[in-house]
Design brief:
152 residues; alpha/beta; 5 strands; globular
């Protein structure tokens, strides 16, 4: 199993890094996980223009990655599910890629091109917190699928 988490984010050290590394290590029992953060000049320039320009820049950057693996966008209007439903969603997939949007979220057209869209919460959260929650839920999902006692 291969998993990629692709975020519109500046590569910078943060206090969350040790948490991410611990979660990735836990997930490695079940899958290989790659954490990719992208913030090219085109996205930075678009942020100075407008939210719409930013969303378009995100789509241009990420759309070429669609179609190769099962793609899941994190989006406020995505499906809300519990840990059991999430584990079923990812259970039979060989390769997964999760997309975490930038400050302005995704265009509807990008979300529609993904295989699924999920919402982690009704609350808005930073991409750093969203990544931590997603990593925890990925580990929880694989623990459920392996009948590992972590979930209890």
């Amino acid at each position: 199993m291969n998993i990629s988490i692709i975020s519109i984010a500046k590569k910078e050290r943060s206090l969350y890094d040790p948490l991410y590394q611990e979660q990735i290590k836990m997930i490695s029992r079940f899958a290989k996980l790659e954490d990719i953060e992208l913030f090219p000049k085109e996205v930075a320039k678009a942020h100075q223009i407008s939210s719409e320009a930013s969303q378009i820049a995100y789509s241009r950057l990420l759309s070429p990655m669609l179609g190769k693996n099962y793609s899941i966008a994190l989006h406020p209007d995505g499906k809300k599910m519990d840990s059991f439903a999430f584990s079923k969603l990812i259970s039979d997939k060989i390769s997964l890629q999760f997309f975490i949007g930038g400050a302005y979220g995704f265009e509807k057209s990008f979300v529609d091109q993904c295989d699924a869209a999920i919402s982690l919460s009704d609350m808005t959260m930073s991409h750093k917190i969203a990544k931590a929650v997603l990593l925890e839920q990925i580990y929880r999902a694989y623990s459920l699928l392996a009948n590992h006692p972590y979930h209890k």
